[in-house]
Amino acid sequence: MRPGLSYLNGAVDVHVHVCPHLNGRSANVFEAVRQAAALGMRGLGLMDNFQNSSGYAALVMQELGHLGVEVFGGLIMQPTAGGVSYEAARNAVDYGYGPGTGARFLSLPTHHTHAEALREGRSPAFLETTFRVPSSGKVPDPVPAIMDLCAERDIVFDCGHVSGPEALALAEEARRRGTTRVRCHAQRYEPDEIAALVALGAVPEFSFFLLTHATQVGLTHVDAEKHRAPFQTVDDLAPRLRAAGRHAVLSSDAGIALLPEPAEALREFLLLLEAQGFAEADLKAMISENPARLFRVGG
């Protein structure tokens, strides 16, 4: 048995990009589920920058639900998927094949936030159209209403690719509104910001993608422009992950053809963290217990 496969038994990978895309994929949604089932995984979360992925999740559950992998999706509110809109969010929570198959998360944009657009070197005109939380910390409409919808449906509010200070403002607002399920993509945040997010009840997520060779070339994420994601070393990641304690979630963020299939990418990520000195029990909590609890997998 290959090293690290035991980590995948019962694992939930909440960040998988195997839906149709502009870039080539390593697997389609059906193949990814079959691979996960063969390794004893418990769940997969489908991410899609172009549309609500809960439709794909509902379809694959109808066809492959008997394999025992719970597949769920949600809406990333990119302009391509309707933008940061209460109407788009409201439609997403019921989009599927009946009760229980709607969006399991509602996410602010990934590649259409001010922070991410600055990182990608987008044009001033593009920057003007992006989502941001102002320096005052006041969360703009319609985000508070979307948080309320997440609370009402008991689903995850995802902060998207915002800056650390913006994530803190969003987590504080979510807490005030009783939105108890909050995910933050915290890989580039400072350790003190990550600790503060955990104290607010948010769950920081850390993914494999930024530690890989896929960062070495320009990729299209939501349009024809190609951008490189800044490479991160495991030495840089480690203090950030430790700042989260056992409260973090680990994911592959895989699916692009440059990387192995998501299940294999996740195995490699866990072995890398194990070699960095993270305890097996902590890694299992971050790949199984925490994501299952956050996204209500199996419950």
Automatic annotation (TrEMBL):
Pfam families reported in the protein's UniProt record: DUF6282 (PF19799)
Record protein name field: Amidohydrolase-related domain-containing protein
InterPro entries in UniProt: DUF6282, Metal_Hydrolase
